[in-house]
UniProtKB/TrEMBL annotation:
Basic residues bias: start-end ranges: 86-105
Major localization listed first in the record, in broad terms: membrane
Name the UniProt record assigns to this protein: ABC transporter permease
Phylogenetic classification of the source organism: Bacteria, Bacillati, Bacillota, Bacilli, Bacillales
UniProt-listed Pfam families: ABC2_membrane_3
Topology class, membrane: Multi-pass membrane protein
Domain ABC-2 type transporter transmembrane: 17-76
Amino acid sequence: MFISIAKKEIKLLIKEKGTFFWLLVLPILFIVLFGSMSSMKTQAVKIPYMDQDQTTASRQFIQSLEQMKGIQTVYTKPGANERHPAGKQRKQFPGRTGTGHKRRQIIGPARTP
């Protein structure tokens, strides 16, 4: 019974070219297309770190990260995140900010409405 149903369905697929295309050719085309878009090369994920603790545990943790495949650690100098702190007044751009104050411009995190 199963074989007779399968034979009937195959005959219908051969008769109807559109169904054959959508059922078999298009999925194969997508497999080839998406397979060619993604390369098999893997890039290491860069993880910036700043060891402020300076203990053996923190050094061991960083060394264990460096030994992991696919992870590249990047040392960040202390104070690098303080170059442009949020909320500091910038004197380079005085003028109206839209907040009503006409002499200060505050650079900070964006506010959501």
